[in-house]
Design a protein that fits this description.
The protein has 15 helices and 18 strands. The chain is an alpha/beta fold and 448 residues long. It has 2 domains: 186 residues, Rossmann fold (3-Layer(aba) Sandwich); 245 residues, Rossmann fold. The strands form 3 sheets. An 8-stranded mixed β-sheet has the order 4-3-2-1-9-10-7-6, with helices on both faces. Strands 11, 12, 13, 14, 15, 16, 17 and 18 form an 8-stranded mixed β-sheet that branches. It is globular, with a radius of gyration of 23 Å. The N and C termini lie far apart (46 Å).
Amino acid sequence: MNSVNETASKVIAVLDTLGISRAHLVAWASADWGGLVARHANRFATLTLAFPAMRLGTPDVIGLPTLSFASDQGNGPVNTRRLMERAPQAKTVIFEGYHAPLWNDLIADNARRIEKETRAHLASHPIPVVSLAAGPGRVGDIHYTVEGAGVEGAGPPVVLMPIGLVPSQWGPVRESLARDYCVISLGGAPLGMVATLEARAQSGYGAIIHRLIDEAAPAADSKMLEVGCGHGPLVRPLAARRAAGPPITGIDINAYLLDEGRALAQAQGLAKAIDFRYANAHALPFADDSFDVVFCSTVMEEGHADRMLAEMARVIRPGGRVVVAVRAVDMPWWVNLEEDAAIRRTLNELAPKTSSGAGPDGCADASLYRRVMQAGFEHVRMRLQLAVYAGDARALEVRERLLAMLQGDELERAAAAIANAEKAGSFFIAEPFHAAIGHTATGVQPGH
């Protein structure tokens, strides 16, 4: 909970800097808003949650007037149940038959109804108007943008937290609210999926991806491309350890994550070492034979995997290498608990459900190896990798995802078993990934 409370303190520092004593709060991840609701509820008039992730930092009691938008698919019912247990007075708007993976444009898809319900919710709990200079700003490692009527951001203040991997974030709803409210949109490394992806990259997951890239042995002057770089949690450490060489190129279709990546690279003095570009992995905007090494991690699940591999093969020079990794939904996880074998089996069965799986044309299984060879890569090295999470933020995140899927006696037993294993220092979670390293054709057997 310390990190949750630290995040809350950073958000309060932004409000204090802007002179906002009370605001409406609109959010997604409980790690962003949980500490605020638990410790600073007097600073907020309402809470609005969009397809919420009720995991880290979810308070036991939510006393604020609460509106929630939810899907009846995937983890939607689980999150709705957890919310209603803590805020039985909350109003929940269910989008029936709507699947809400993290990368969907959730708000834009449902903008009209979300805007209507949100406006009614905010209007029923009026707060004083503020007037702030419109534009961007930063307090510590949180950045913000103020929007509102006229040159001054005038209106009752509404704080918008990041929402998943949603490309346009709050999009049309934000634009509409800004006509009548002072809208403060927050971002930065401590918030939303940026915080989650940073924690993953600094865990056993990041370690296995960097080992795979090292195994591909890029030269110091290699031209490198990351397909689906997001905000750059993998490419920034690579760029930081390169003493020279051309900038590493990172492409993604998520403009929100690219903006976050540029800001983080700038803050770390890596702005010239990474070239972030908006591009689609299905049609890379590069000439044939442009790169020596291309890597792509947990991206081929979300699009057309074979088309992505064909594009990667096209832009790699003869003798160049590709490094790809995908989630292994066809493999079991391992949650290391000794004292309760039945609960261990339950958690091991549930663990794969905490990941996002794959789209209809995506790849999240052992077909990766066949696909890489069919794309024309040679001398393919196949790797089944286990990312081990122990005593870090990623372990905490996955643990909370698992516990969120349980209730009653199973929840109590699992929480007790995990607490005892953590106390003994033996608790860890291992997540499987399929990975491959392939070479483009040269007619010569690689020497490594």
